[in-house]
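Following up on my earlier thread - several people asked me to post the actual chain instead of describing it. Fair enough. Here it is, all 124 residues.
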Amino acid sequence: MSSRREGLQGRLTDSYREVDRLIISVGSGVLAISVALLGTEAASLESWAIKLSWGAMFIAVLSVLIALLFEQADKRRRINQIDADREETDGCLDIFINAFNIIGVMTFVGGLLSLAYFLFANTK
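Reply from S.P.:
Thanks for posting it. Predicted structure:
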């Protein structure tokens, strides 16, 4: 593998890590802040939107964590292939990793949009 390709592969992996960190930290923060804000409202409007946001953020964080576990398993499988002097191959875990990453990003964006709607509806 060329050094250019290895460098690009490393940067791609780093960018996935940054997205994962962002989803977990921002998603957790949004949940905590929205719970605090919800407690200050006497009678909140559009409560379905905050519930949808909580569910989406929970699914986003869970999806990213599952993708990370699958990625760890895939890395161990690849290391075993290299240790056994076999050709490194893609596995079915790649499909699951990509699917859970896509689910995580989509539900994260949906949760942010739902939270924005809730905040807009409850702002005077």
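The first helix runs from residue 3 to 40. That should answer part of your original question.
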